[in-house]
Each structure stands twice: as structure tokens, then as C-alpha cells.
Amino acid sequence: xxxxxxxxxxxxxxxxxxTLMGCGLKNNDPNTETTGSTGQGTETTSGGTDAKAFDxxxxxxxxxxxxxxxxxxxxxxxxxxxxxxxxEVENRVGxxxxxTIVKTRLASGDMSDLCLYNSGSLLAAIHPADYFIDISGExxxxxxxxxxxxxxxxxxxxYGIPFSSSQAGAILYNKTIYQELGxxxxxxxxxxxxxCEAIKGAGKTALIGTFGDSWTSQLIFLGDNYNILAxxxxxxxxxxxxxxxxxxxxxxxxSFEKLAQLLPYYNGxxxxxxxxDGTDMLANAEGxxxxxxxxxxxxxxxxxxxKIDDIGVFAxxxxxxxxxxxxxWMPGSIYGNKNASNVEAVKAFMEFYVSDEALNxxxxxxxxxxxxxxxxxxxxxxxxxxxxEDMQAYFDAGKTNVALEFLTPVKGANCPxxxxxxxxxxxxxxxxxxxxxxxxxxxxxxxxxxxx
Amino acid sequence: xNKNKIYSMWFLIPSIVIFSIFFLIPxxxxxxxxLTVWDFKNFTFVGLDNFKQYFSxxxxxxxxxxxxxxxxxxSGSKVVLAFIIAVxxxxxxxxxxxxxxIVFFPNLVSSLAVGVTFAALMHPTKGLFNLVLExxxxxxxxxxxxxxxxxxxxxxTDVWKGVGIATVIYIAGIQCIDKGYYxxxxxxxxxxxxRLKCITIPLVRPAMNSIIILSLIGGLxxxxxxxxxxxxxxxxxxxxxxxVVYKQYAAGYYGLSTAGNVIMLVLIAAIAYPxxxxxxxxEEQ
Lengths: 452, 285
Description:
The complex is a heterodimer.
Chain A: H1 2-27, E1 33-34, E2 58-64, H2 70-82, E3 86-92, H3 95-107, E4 114-117, H4 121-125, H5 128-131, H6 146-151, E5 153-154, E6 157-158, E7 160-162, E8 167-174, H7 175-180, H8 189-201, H9 219-222, H10 225-231, H11 235-241, H12 250-261, H13 275-283, E9 289-293, H14 296-303, E10 311-314, E11 326-329, E12 333-336, H15 343-353, H16 356-365, H17 385-396, E13 400-402, H18 415-423, H19 429-447
Parallel strand pairs in A: 2-3, 2-4, 11-13
Antiparallel strand pairs in A: 1-3, 4-12, 5-6, 7-12, 8-9, 8-10, 8-11
Helix pairs in contact in A: 2-16, 10-12, 12-19, 18-19
Chain B: H1 13-33, E1 36-38, E2 43-45, H2 49-56, H3 58-90, H4 96-104, H5 111-121, H6 128-135, H7 150-176, H8 179-187, H9 192-203, H10 205-220, H11 224-229, H12 241-251, H13 254-284
Antiparallel strand pairs in B: 1-2
């Protein structure tokens, strides 16, 4: 009896303690770091002429840990100095788990003052009107690039500002291998396959596959969007209306065929290799080409700064050399929480974030993976060759378009798995296209689109 | 102290309240939301569309098949393997206590840690398994990359991890058997196999039934190990019900994923309940 009482008392204490610990942990979350203190030292040099409008205001920001924070930290330090706003950054995981965190925190009213989240289809899917500040009427909106602005505008209302530079979904290649084998950048899909054959024939890995991170398997498919739209400019509108399908449109099906056709050229462990493995392999010339987002350039630059100029970029080729171009990804965006404690400070911070001085601070800390989404803001002189020369050429020629997820909110959730299955030969291109159409139908149903 | 004291029904209130709030209300509301398209704020009633979705889409009913394969194979292997180990560990061998700890050890490690470790061990080029296989002259096996093999590689890991707890239950069951039976059998001149077949197996039945039920239900709702090892891939090769539900939830299809949960609940109940009735009736005979 006595033992039982003791046991009960012990359990009560243990439960209480663990609850308290749970609360305590929230405050001491190791991921929550206060940034901005670095700016304090320079405060005197700025002269302190104009009074800081928001001195002592603290805002919170939720961002995914995958987005590089070197540039952000530079801007936050400057914001502390110029505006007096301190921003506390809280990191969350990226990917699907991260989406769940954002959605749950929005729904439960627990969102931070500033939220970093995707632009395009994913933004539309979380009902921004319910949660985010409408910035359509603000002056600084006129600075935003028009293509970008469309991706943060839902039902005519603009919500976000670009977190970083844009980037492209393309093929990164190692120039040393190309030079060694005397190859030139492929202008058509057939030339790409010929290059693959030549590199494979020379006993090297032609293509780097990093399907261990399943999202990377989508690049050939998603990055082919320029070519789809070049053949059928109304594809995006008709796709959202449900009148055109990947499986039945020749241009759409071609994207899946391209993905399936690359199977013989991957590295031996392409199903297990990860994104990080891919950056190592490409930089060290263990593979010649890697279908990837150009954000990988920054990762390569961090790890192998002396090899960054060996890396070039070309768009996923179409069948017609004259009619192919680059598919561009818009950056994630910063959104303001409607229920923030200090909405004016949030808006002031957003305005500051897209100002020239903030952009300079950002570009001074981290080099861009593509052009910025701010009108008239030029690439820095010391940008990676792959961005300054290879990518800029597509922009100068006007041969760019955005990925489909920035044109329509419909994007099937199983896209990574389907691309993995097609890319590894478990599904044919036709089966993959059909499965993706079905997957998109599920999403359209969720979005309330009337698809048959 | 007072034997005639009749407890008031009011004593049931706390448990009924807790049970309703945490079990009954969520169950009923999930049944309702499984018939809707739901985004936390608004819902549209769509009837049985979500369920139709499950049975019409190949990747979804494929996951039901994988779940069944996974549950029955892991459960079956654990029942057989754990029995052999338990018999060994209850015999008169030295270092018995040490071996028992070893067998139980994998159970102490979290599934996620086991998953990450085994995914590394099964890496096609850098993993220890393949380095050993190549070292002794056998070729590489693409454990998690081969879509026909990936599910079985995960099953192997699950059995490695779960066999310890089954062994412990068996050991407890075997030690409960009265020594008198074995003595009588010795006097009658029974050999080892006869003792095992006629005494140990029939009398360890209750323990075996617990293991079957526990491991089968565990297998049907398994998620963490699969997610950390393959993420349901390559393609959809190792997708089980729980991982599909998870992916749909992450994609924001709350109604559809709730429907998946309802199917899982029905599936588990439809398999586990009759099985338990059957096993118990056998036990009573």
C-alpha cells in the first residue's frame, strides 16, 4: 500500500516535471537564435541622424533551415541598425514536413510575424487571404519584377516579397569533362543523348542521379516547362481548367519521355545518392552533368570555391534548337502575418528588405543563383560564371519562362514519387503521365476546381 | 473494508469524460471528415469520393497490398525466429544472461535511428553489407534501390529490431511451464524434439498468441522505419497505408488522409479482431 502511494506520488511529480520541461524547452529552443546583434558595433558610424522609427521592436520570423541564412543575417543586422527592428529567426525543417508545420501553425494562430514560404502554387493552397498582410497598396510593390509578382498574387491581392534571387531548373555540367572529350553544349535533346553516349563510352558517369532525395528526380520533368509552353503557349491555362492532360498532350508527354530516356546514363548508386553527394560528384568531375536547380552552385561554391568556374549551366534542351529555353524558379517569399503584434513594423521591414541597401547587403554576403526579382537591380560583378554568362544569355535573349507551379496552383503531391518511378524504369512515360494526371485531379478536387 | 458497499456510477464519470474527449469524439469526427474535402476551416461534403479515390488509384491500393505483405511477413518471421531464439536462451547454455541482453538490445534503439543506420548499411556502393558481399566474392545487392527487393529489405530490418521483444515474451512463457512436465517426459524417455513438440509448443501458446497479435497490429500500422529508410520509394515500391496517409496530410489533403486513416482502422480491426477471437478459442480448448 505504502509502495503504491509512493509510486503514485512519484508519477505525479514526473508528469508535472515533464510538462514544465516541455514549456521550458519552448523558450530555450536551440533553433531560436537572436540575430541582429552584430549591427550594434557599427551603430555609431552611421551617425544616427534619422530617428529609428521602430527602435526596440522585436519581430519573429519562421524560415526553413534549407534556405541559406548568410544573406538574411546580413540584412537583419542592417535592419537593426537602420530601423531598430530586431528579428528573431526560428528555423523549421524543409520539404513536406515543413509545409505541415506552416499549415498547422497558421491554422492554430501560432504563426510568427514574418513567414518564409514558397511562392506560386503552394502559396495559393494555404488561403493567404486568411493569414497574410495585403501589401498590394504599398509603394515598394512597384519594385517587384512582374513575373515574380504574379507568383505571390492570389485573387488579385499581393502578399510577398522575394527572399533571395531567382534560380533555374537546368542541367549543370562540368566543363573539364566536356573539354577533355571535346563536347559542346547540346542545343537539342538528341544532342544531349549523343553527349551522354560519348561520355558513357569514355568510361565516365554521364549523368548524376540523386534520387535518394526524391525531389531531385523531378528536375527533368519540371525544368522542361519552357519547352512545353514553347510548343503550346496555352498549356498552363488549359491545364488548370482541366481540359488538357499530360498523358494526352504530345508536348506534356514528351517531358516524361525525356525523363525515362535518361535511365542508362546515371551513376551506379543513383537511387541512393543524395543532393549532397551530387554537389560533391559534380565539383570533383565524378559525373559530367546533373539536372538540378542552380541553387546547387552556392553549395558547390561553399565547399569548393576554386572549382566554381568549372561548372556551367544549360537549359533542358527541346527538340527544336531555335525554340528551347530556360525554366526559371521564383524564390521563396517573406509574408507578413495579419495578426502580427506590430503590423506597421512588419510592413516597414518588408519595404526595407527590397530596398537597394538591403539588397546590397544580401548580395555582399552571398552570390545569387540567378537574376534578382527586383526591377533594374543588376547581378553583382563577381557572380558565378554559370549565372553571369550561361544563364544571363537566356534572359538577354528573352528565352525564359517560369516553372508550371508558378503559373497554376495545381501540382500533384506525388510528383517526386512518380518522377522517381519513371526515372528508374518502374513506370513507362505513359504510365507516369497518367498517374500524374490522376494525382493532379486529386489536388484540383481539393482546390475546388471543377475537373471531370 | 465494507463489503456491501456499492460503488456509485458517478465514479465512472472521469473515465467516461476522458474516453469521450480523447477517443469517441475524434473517432466520430474523423468518420465525418473522411466524407469531406477539408482544409481545417471549411469543408465540402463529397460523399464517398475519398474512399473511391483510394480504391481507384494504383499507388493507393498498392499501398494496401504492401501493408499486408509487410504485416504478415514481419509477424510470421518474428513468431518463428523469436521462438527458436527463446528456446536456445532458456536452455542450459553459458552466457545466457548476456545473450538475452544482446537479443533485446535492438529494441532499445529508436526506429528512426535504426532506419537511418540500416539505410547507410544498405547503401549500394558505400554500405557495409555490400562491401562484405563483394569481399567474399558475391555481387552487390541493391537493397533499397531495387523496387522488387526494397520492401523485403525493410522487413528484414523490422524483424531484426522487433525480434527481441517477441523473444522476451516467449522466454517468460517458457519459464512459466511447470518443470514437472519435463521431468515426467524424461522418465518416459522422451528425446529433445518430443519434449519441444509435445510440451513446450502447446504450453507456450498464450505467449505466442500475444506475439502474433502485437506484431501483426504493429506491422499494419508501421511507418517510422519505412519512412526513415525509403520514404515510400523508390517510386511507390515501399509505400504503406501509413506513409500514404502521411504524405496526403503533408500535401494538405486533410479529408482524403482522414479517409485513409478510417480505411486503416477498419483494416486493422477486420484482421485483428477475428484473429484474436480465433486464437483465444484455440487457447481455451
